[in-house]
Amino acid sequence: MGKAKSYTKKQMLGKALMYIVLILGAIYTLIPFATIIITSFRTTKDSVRGPFTWPHEWQIVENYISAWEMGHFDRYLLNSIFMMVITVIGTLFVATLAGYSFAKFRYPGKNVLYYTLLLSMMIPFQTIMLPLYFILRASKLLNTLTGVAILGIATGLGFAIMMMRSFFISLPDSLLEAARLDGCSELGVLLRIVMPNTFPAWASLIVFVAMASWNNLLAPMIYIFNEEKYPIPYALYAFQSAHTTSYELLSAGMMISILPIILIYILFQKNFQANLMAGAVKG
Amino acid sequence: MKKKRSLYRNQMIMGYILILPALILFAIFFVYSLIQAVYYSTLEWDGIGVQTSVGLQNYLNLFQDKVFWGAFFNNWFYTFGLMIFGVLPGLLLAYMLSRPNIRGRTFFRSIYFFPRIISAVIYGAVWKWIYDPRVGLITKIIDLFGDDNSFAMLGNVKTAMFGITITGGWTYFGFCMVLFLAAFMGLDNALEESALLDGANRLQMFFHVTIPQIKPVLNTVLVYTVIDCFKVYDLVLVMTAGGPNDSTQIMTYYIYKQAFTMNQFGYGSAAAVLLGIFMVIFTIVYNRLVGEEV
């Protein structure tokens, strides 16, 4: 009896220790975010004291208005949204068709083609960024957001196809066969039977692609020259170089640029993490 | 019979049509680009003017380029740093969260994963503040202990790469945690319980029973870490831009600098091709090794 009691005590201690570590980990993760949030609400005079002091004066909207107007964040947000929408739609279109084909059709050379496409995941963007510059220039897409978006579709394709293929493999064949026997054309099967069942897979693919597009810094740095076409990260980078110690303005700018992607993450995150986990277990 | 055959032919044609858009993109942006990249790497060229063929001279120069090898070394430093500050804490936190009597699993998981969705332009800048010798958090903490010397993590050749690595680990451990958590949650508890009954202590059990069971995921994460660490770019650009004195130079930023700052397109391409070859060889060799083990 006494032994059992001491065992529980030890267990309790272990559990408390685990919670302490977990909470410390959470605090460690959140410190930079808390810093941005708090700093974005400080007055200019107050923020001179540095981002790691407790504010004496607060203001709620002023920095956001200044950042919005001085930093032209309205324009950059629209640029990023435009680029993200094209990248997401393009990737969904190409990867859904290819993934469906690799999962549900039989034709010669299928596996060779699939693994060749996956090779693109291994090639770092930097290896091909110079030739891409001249390809974009030749196709009159240099210095356009559409051009960068198309590159985003191409470079993210290997992963997207892999994800869609493994999703379609889990879709039962009997569903498709039944529709085919009912005289449904291949296009009809795709549009009426397959597509309506694809939304869960799309949800997590959207988060991956949207995140990659939203946070892409290198490609816009190389292929976009006009400031009015900058997407958010590049604009923020330029803004940082111009206002190194205006912590309050920088923080407000960061907050503005984080919010949209956080919204997408929250909307789709349940599916997203579940898929990430499933993918890892499958290897 | 005839109908079945035509059905197969229909399927074949449809199958090819569906992968056509992907193949076209792949052909233009990867196959053609890679051929071009290899071709550029044999040139002396500033991107605008005359192209002079120099054969393998760019590669020979690269092998003697100290900054290039320094960058290669820094990428490995960063990789091993992320194993310690990213993969390892991710593994431990995932193990804790996978214990059946722990509550708030989704809550912690969502918080830890958070840095992964943010751009390096943002967290890189905040971490720069943390390391700031004048107003930074580290300086403030050192001050608490009465030491008035300011400490410039990123301004010092010896510590700058270490500072970047800590930040890299901060963005990475939550991502690893999500992957490991899935693996731990899928485990059968019976093995652990019988090991405990056999008199193994917790630590022995963790290393000899639990870890071997999640080896496939561990392998995936390790390969992914190396690939990810050799692609790192934004973080270094934002935090140090390769400085001070090239002490944080990494492969990707070096390639960028050669091509777009120094206008040495041929030389930059050679470095880019070497990076690509390294990544492909690494992935293939690793898959072989792992494949044989399983």
Automatic annotation (TrEMBL), chain A:
Topology of the protein relative to the lipid bilayer: Multi-pass membrane protein
Keyword Metal-binding: no
Entry keyword Transmembrane helix: yes
PROSITE patterns reported in the protein's UniProt record: ABC_TM1
Keywords: Cell membrane, Membrane, Transmembrane, Transmembrane helix, Transport
UniProt record, GO biological process: transmembrane transport
Subcellular location: Cell membrane
Domain of life: Bacteria
InterPro entries: MetI-like (IPR000515), MetI-like_sf (IPR035906)
Residue intervals of the ABC transmembrane type-1 domain: 77-268
Similarity comment text for this entry: Belongs to the binding-protein-dependent transport system permease family.
Protein name: Carbohydrate ABC transporter permease
TrEMBL record, chain B:
Membrane spanning stretches: 12-35, 76-98, 110-130, 160-184, 265-286
Residues of the signal peptide: none
Membrane topology designation: Multi-pass membrane protein
A Pfam family recorded for this sequence: BPD_transp_1
An individual GO BP term: transmembrane transport
Compartments where located: Cell membrane
GO cellular component terms listed in the entry, alphabetical order: plasma membrane
InterPro entries in alphabetical order: MetI-like, MetI-like_sf, UgpAE/MalFG_permease
Keywords, sorted A to Z: Cell membrane, Membrane, Transmembrane, Transmembrane helix, Transport
Keyword match Cytoplasm: no
All copies of domain ABC transmembrane type-1, residue ranges: 72-286
UniProt keyword annotation of Nucleotidyltransferase present: no
Family the entry assigns: Belongs to the binding-protein-dependent transport system permease family.
Name recorded for this polypeptide: Sugar ABC transporter permease
